[in-house]
Amino acid sequence: MAKALVLLAPGFEEIEALTIVDVLRRGGVEVVTAGLEDPVEGSHGVKVLPDRKLEEVRVEDFEALICPGGYPGYENLRKNPKVLEMVRKAAESGKVVGAICGAPAVLAEAGVLKGKRATIYPGMEGELKKGGAKPGKGLVVVDGKVVTSKGPATAFAFALELLRLLGGRKKAEEVRKATLAHLGARLR
Fold this sequence. Notes:
By secondary structure, the protein is α/β, with parallel strands linked by helices. The protein is built from seven helices and eleven strands.
């Protein structure tokens, strides 16, 4: 069973974070949330008890590292040296690295978007260019094992793409249909 690490910083976007966790768990991926605080309060006041503190997890123990966006959540991730180190280590070791909304700026800051196609929340494309990325078209952009997406409304499609990479197309299709996402969300 694949394992994914979802990082939660104060001000995370609840729709994004919880959709990712839910979809991946439905697909049989073991998901661990790691918080910069305990509990972690999202950008809309929802408090989440992370499974672990950031200091208690090692990126080596996971097949994926995922950063939800939200403001100031993505900024809090980007300012954390341990987060940046973990993102770099995950990318360098060939793990799936995902970021949505403003969080692709975290990947850019960590230096993992250089030469990659990526997307980000509309109006933040300068963050991608600053990190050496090529702005990609689409609500979800997959370049190798780097997956990026635009924002809250794209969270389900983003999570399904992560599941496709971690659990296979068949499992992603099963979850897509069971959740009625097949009525709107499509896989690559």
